[in-house]
Design goal:
Helices cover 56% and strands 3% of the residues. It has 367 residues and is mostly helical. The chain has a domain of 210 residues: Fumarate Reductase Cytochrome B subunit, CATH 1.20.950. The protein has a three-stranded antiparallel sheet with strand order 2-1-3. Helix 4 packs across helix 10. The longest helix is centred in the first third of the chain and has 28 residues. It is globular. It starts with 46 loop residues before the first helix and ends with a strand.
Length: 367
């Protein structure tokens, strides 16, 4: 018995697959039936016609691009260029505002009253000793490598090797990069302790420690003069201006100790059994402070070098490296040699050189 709605044999039609039941009479000719709407070709329909009438498969709409509030161009170079242009524009605005301020009568009178130089106490030592030049070099050398290795510790996904202390074979493993970073920290701290001792013994501490409250208005005056590109009158061989004094004081007696106490908290030197001390000084606090302190040292170094080179490079470099108050090339040559040593240390801080040194103090293994 034939199903209703399907053509009987002998009527010249072939049933299509997946075609729904039709309410048409069974005796209707196949050619008179409307074409199937399933998108599949029938026996009475040619392939091109089926292709023309078939609906395209539905496509998934692409997700709209994620919009950012301040879109930046692609690529590190392009982003750096945008940031550089923004900094130049910001610096130009600061200079214009500062030059307008110093041209006004109240600010001009303020600068005349506080020229930017806070006088030292009577009997203060004059000049910069030779040991300070060596301390300055070692401080810069260690600081550059500390910043490099510290950033590597923070961004390195897979360190080249691990290090275990020789005196504690079952102790906690650390990465080779972290070992180098902490070793440089110890050398930097040792150099800093020697520097502070010599500073106190020689009496040169008065050059970087405020001894009068007038240092603050003098510092504001010096900042206005720097910002207006009208350098304050100074003689670094005798004493620093007030802004330099406060910057050196903050670096030596605030930023450096803060870097030390936060670094110790995150290192193996922290006593694991000191539960009360650990609760009072959680490691999250140390981590939140350690990176901004590093950024401070980087910013201080950039500004410091820029001012040294732009406010009388030969004389300033002679003060810092040559140990003399003269304008010649001695300090400049020593400065260039020190830069070459620092660059050499930067490229030498690699596993091929670090591994033999680290092996003297512990076990180095591949990660």
């Amino acid at each position: 018995m034939a199903r209703e709605g399907l053509p009987r044999p002998g009527q010249g039609a072939t049933p299509s697959q997946g075609q729904p039941d039709s309410p048409e009479p069974a005796a209707a000719p196949a050619a008179a039936r409307p074409p199937a709407r399933t998108g599949l070709p029938t026996a009475a329909t040619s392939q091109p016609a089926a292709s023309a009438t078939s609906a395209p498969p539905p496509s998934t709409p692409a997700a709209p691009p994620k919009k950012t509030r301040f879109p930046l161009p692609e690529g590190r170079v392009a982003r750096a260029a945008v940031i550089g242009v923004a900094l130049v524009v910001l610096a130009a605005i600061v200079v214009l505002i500062a030059r307008w301020l110093v041209s006004t009568e109240p600010v001009s009178d303020f600068i005349a009253t506080y020229p930017g130089e806070s006088h030292l106490p009577e009997g203060s030592p004059v000049g910069i000793p030779t040991w300070l030049a060596w301390q300055h070099f070692f401080n810069a050398f260690f600081l550059v490598l500390i910043v490099k290795t510290g950033w590597q510790v923070r961004t390195q996904k897979r360190p080249p090797a691990s290090w275990t202390p020789r005196w504690s074979p079952g102790g906690r493993k650390i990465s080779l990069t972290l070992w180098l970073h902490q070793s440089l920290d110890l050398l930097w701290v040792t150099n800093g302790v020697i520097f502070v001792i010599l500073l106190i013994v020689s009496g040169h501490w008065v050059r970087i420690v405020p001894t009068s409250w007038d240092v603050f208005p003098h510092a504001i005056s010096a900042a206005l003069q720097y910002a207006s590109l009208n350098w304050p009158t100074e003689n670094g061989w005798v004493n620093y201006n007030a802004l330099q004094l406060l910057a050196y004081f903050a670096t030596v007696f605030i930023a450096a100790p803060l870097a030390i106490v936060t670094g110790v908290r995150m290192s193996q030197l922290w006593p694991a059994r000191a539960k009360t001390l650990t609760r009072l000084y959680p490691i999250e606090v140390a981590r939140a402070l350690h990176l901004p302190v590093m950024f401070y040292f980087v910013a201080f170094t950039v500004v410091h070098v820029a001012l040294v080179l732009s406010t009388g490079a030969l004389r300033n470099l002679n003060h810092m490296y040559g140990g003399q108050d003269a304008v010649n090339w001695v300090g400049f040559i020593i400065f260039v040699v020190s830069l070459l040593v620092i660059v050499g240390g930067w490229f030498a801080a690699r596993p091929i050189i670090v591994v033999p040194i680290a092996s003297l103090f512990g076990k180095v293994a591949r990660t």
